[in-house]
């Protein structure tokens, strides 16, 4: 798994982000947690994946780029929509990958 530098997080899990990332990476079970990832195909904007699904032995996690973590499916959908709206406002298109790359560059310049 590849973690996006400026990870999107639900408000209620911001303080626990490192612990949650560790659990996801080490296949520890967590109920009602979802990750937002860049799509494995080019037909989608983002993917919402349950952490239960990620625990499956043969789930293709190697090149999975996680850009957000949400508690509950509704928050995951809201977070994905927020990312797409930010992309539209910034680029005028739905190229989420390009938007996140540019956002990462901007954040690195600020540091």
Question: How would you describe what is shown here?
Answer:
The structure is a single chain. The mean pLDDT is 90. This protein is 42% helix and 22% strand. The protein has helices spanning 17-25, 51-54, 73-91, 96-110, and strands at 2-9, 33-37, 47-50, 65-71. With 111 residues, it is an alpha+beta fold. It has one domain. It has a four-stranded mixed β-sheet with strand order 1-4-2-3. The longest helix is centred in the C-terminal third of the chain and has 19 residues, at 73-91.
Largest sheet: 4 strands, mixed
**Using only CA atoms, what is the Rg?**
14 Å
Judged by helices, strands and strand pairing, the structural class is alpha+beta
Number of domains: 1
- Helix count equals 4
- Total number of strands: 4
User: What is the share of helical residues?
Assistant: 40-55%
The shape, in one word, is: globular
- What is the arithmetic mean of pLDDT? 90
Topology:
Blueprint: E1 2-9, H1 17-25, E2 33-37, E3 47-50, H2 51-54, E4 65-71, H3 73-91, H4 96-110
Parallel strand pairs: 1-4
Antiparallel strand pairs: 2-3, 2-4
Can you summarize this structure?
With 111 residues, this protein is of the alpha+beta class. Helix content is 42%, strand content 22%. It has one domain.
What keyword list fits this structure?
four-stranded mixed sheet, 111 residues, 22% strand, alpha+beta, 4 helices, 42% helix
């Amino acid at each position: 798994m590849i973690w996006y530098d400026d990870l999107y997080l639900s408000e209620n899990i911001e303080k626990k982000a490192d612990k949650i990332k560790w659990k996801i990476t080490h296949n520890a079970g967590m109920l009602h947690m979802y990750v937002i990832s860049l799509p494995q195909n080019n037909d989608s904007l983002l993917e919402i994946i349950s952490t239960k699904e990620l625990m499956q032995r043969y789930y293709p996690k190697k090149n999975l780029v996680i850009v957000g973590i949400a508690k509950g499916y509704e928050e995951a959908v809201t977070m994905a929509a927020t990312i797409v709206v930010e992309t539209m406002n910034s680029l005028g298109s739905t190229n989420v990958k390009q938007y996140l790359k540019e956002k990462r560059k901007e954040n690195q310049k600020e540091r």
